[in-house]
Amino acid sequence: MNHDPSHLEILRELLSGQLLGVLATHHDGEPYTSLVGFAATADLRQLLFATGRATRKHANLVADARASMLVDSRTNRPADFTEAAAATAVGVVEEIGTDERPLFDEIFLAKHPHLESFVRSPSCVPLRLQVSVYMVVSRFQHVIELHFD
Amino acid sequence: MAFVVDLGAPESTDPSLVGGKGAALAGLARHGVKVPPTLCLTTRAYELFVDAASLRPVIRQELGRKNFADMRWEEIWDTALRIRNRFLRAAVPQAVETELADRLAGEFASGPLAVRSSALGEDAEGASFAGLHDSLVGIRGIDEVIDAVRTVWASLWTDRALLYRRELGIDPDSSSMAVVIQRLIEGEVSGIAFGVHPTRPGCVAVEAVHGLNQGLVDGTIEPDHWAIEAATGLIVEHRPPETRRRLALAAGGTQVEDLGGSPPPRDGHRLDEIIVALCTTEAIFGSPQDVEWTIDNGLLVLLQSRPVTTATTDGTDKRSWYLSLTRSLDNLRGLRHRVEDELLPAMDREAETIAQRNLESLDNPGLATEIENRRATHDRWVDVYWREFIPFAHGIRLFGQFYNEAVRPDDPHEFMNLLAGTPMLSLRRNRRLADLAAFVRDDPKLASRLRNGEIHDPDFGARLDAFLGEFGDAVYGNRSVFDDRRRLVRLLLAMAATPPTAQAFEPDDVRRLTEAFLAVVPAERRGLAEEILDVGRSSYQIRDDDNIHLARHKALVIDAVEVGRSRLRGAETTGGHTTDPDQIVAALRHPNLVVEPPPETVALATEEGIRPQPRQLVGQPAGPGVATGPARLIAGVEDLFDIEAGEVLVCDAVEPNMTFVVPMVSAVVERRGGMLIHGAIIAREYGLPCVTGVPDATTRIETGDRLTVDGYLGIVTVSRGE
After folding, report:
1. What is this model's ipTM?
2. Which ranges of chain A have pLDDT less than 70?
3. At CA B36, angle to CA B33 and CA B37, rounded to 5?
């Protein structure tokens, strides 16, 4: 019988295994969520994603860079209540600079090769969520926070 | 699609529909072997039931609460209890009930029935899991049958079955249970026969009892045992039981009857037909069989047949020990007498005798021997604790099961309220401490003097001495709890500064609950109910008290070790720094011995730059209520005396010797899990929210963290630096 994986292992598994996350932003206090493709850096401190410059989420982030992203392993079955895991990342979103762009492409496109034309489009903005803390939920209600020093 | 099939129906040989037991009975009947009139309630009925009552998600959630490997036996029992209660409270679909009532109307209408589990993998070749699920006998009428069927279905999820869930392949989504319903044959003699003797190669084994077979199967009645050479039919061993007794039908169930000096249930030469039956069943099923049999009006009837299997266990598999903890009422009666009247008094007498020995008069080698003797005595009593006291704790479980079947309460742990308020030693100790605190509270001048360190007030001192005379030998870890008078005075001042706490359960509450319980039990079972409650209460009390009795022996060891240690320190030998009793013994015997200092402990490395912090920890609900307060982590005796009123006690394992602080705290959180552990018992006595079985409670929570303890849901929420 194996012991529970640590929350860091659960987080790694989620961030490498899941393709999409739910990004939460706000506009004047009005919450707004969007589904985005993401990729995590090896140190887990950044979640990379991209969006069109004209989108509502981008406008929200320009006004207030604070955001969170939910990544989870649910499969729409009753067993999800006990078996699914979820991580909520909280942090600040920044646009990727020109010098960092090759690294963004390498990491993001390795996970989402079919999005290459999308991210290379001039109207697309590459972004990163600089994570300060993850809340990792397992077994429905077991919650551990992972803080970055 | 029929829910009920008889042994002649084509479907009755399909184990996926009628389970292993049902299919084997159908096989026997087809080959002309006499079996009792039998109906099989198929797995379709179980599936309709669990789906209609939405029980699958309930089971999944209960089993998913924490990693199964991390669950202690108390937690597994709690899990099974909660699942069972949900089964008992769920309605059986009308279609199943109607069909069952129709099929029982004829041949099965009169006389008692046996309702037996017939699980899918239980009797498969290569598996050996007999007895993990329930069978009930003496069932009469459709209402009792429906109740019994529900109980048998629930027994797919017993604590015993959950222990073997991996081997059984138990899964909430796919597991199912058929039920065999038989006319109960109250045979004059019954037994079990094994086609392969478990320990004697080349032999078969026969066990026989007077009366019903159920007494032999559930371990209540000790059988006569024969080993018989398979090739020659020669009896190579006959082992009679210590006393011959029989299980007989009685109003409202069964009862054990003493048979005095009655002869064996079978003569040696009358075992032949049973051996022939073993050969017949082996020929039918193609492998050696274990059979259950009974003799009805002189004719052999087979009650069931399954392949011979050998349980393979290694020394590290403790599950068979756990299974041995399930005791019958009869067994608990005997155990109670032994524990209450023999063992606990003997343990105390021996402690008193040892305490009279003067340690100061011994020379160093003599003291070393005394330390060894005291440790050996303590170890012997620890062994008794595991062998006799822990199994007696099953009395609580037996009462819980009986209560839930009779009352079917919303809260599956409601029965604990009827056990509260028993005169536990820890509660008496806490009352004595509360009296001392009240004495200080009522005398401000005394309180002021005590605060200034003047602790030698004669009247107060005499009261303190009286308390220490009775409870002074409490031990926590390897340390005496009350050896520092100033520390104890500090605790009393803290207690005096806060309002006195009352126990949650007054005798009137318990009396009212008891009356309500007995009122729902049918009149013919009321005497049994009262006895099971009485055993439950004794079991509950001893579960707490035994640790306090045992601590007296631990205290005697600590006293002797401390005398040795102070001598070594005084003589400036190398053993003065050690607390290891082995090293102290060696240094007392050999003054020139070089005692190595203990190795330094190395902290575990954590992932660089990532700081885990708990937010919400899930355990088991063990005491209803919600409370918020700062955490107080208990790592040693000193921490107990630092507790401030309103804090949340966080502990690896709450012990009765440390629960004197519980009246001051607002909630209890414990790493160990279960409703029957000491933390849960004492929290319930004081009406405090309690969550047990929080896997990392003591490593993740820090003193000062603000905790919200939800004792309804079993959740601890942690706020740190907010």
Report:
1. 0.81
2. 1-5
3. 110
